[in-house]
Design a protein that fits this description.
By secondary structure, this protein is mainly alpha-helical. It has one domain (12-46). The chain has 1 helix and no strands.
Length: 46
């Protein structure tokens, strides 16, 4: 494997671990609330 393939594997692993951790800790509803709140706040900011 080349260095960039290792980099992709490592980054992918970290992203998967982060997603799993958030789902287990907060659940999907909290994620959607966060995303909705973020998009709503961004819209008001403009």
């Amino acid at each position: 494997m080349t260095w960039w393939q290792w980099l992709l594997v490592v980054l992918g692993g970290w992203c998967a671990a982060a997603v799993i951790a958030v789902v287990l800790l907060g659940g999907w509803r909290n994620i959607t609330d966060l995303l909705l709140g973020w998009s709503r706040g961004r819209g008001e900011g403009q």
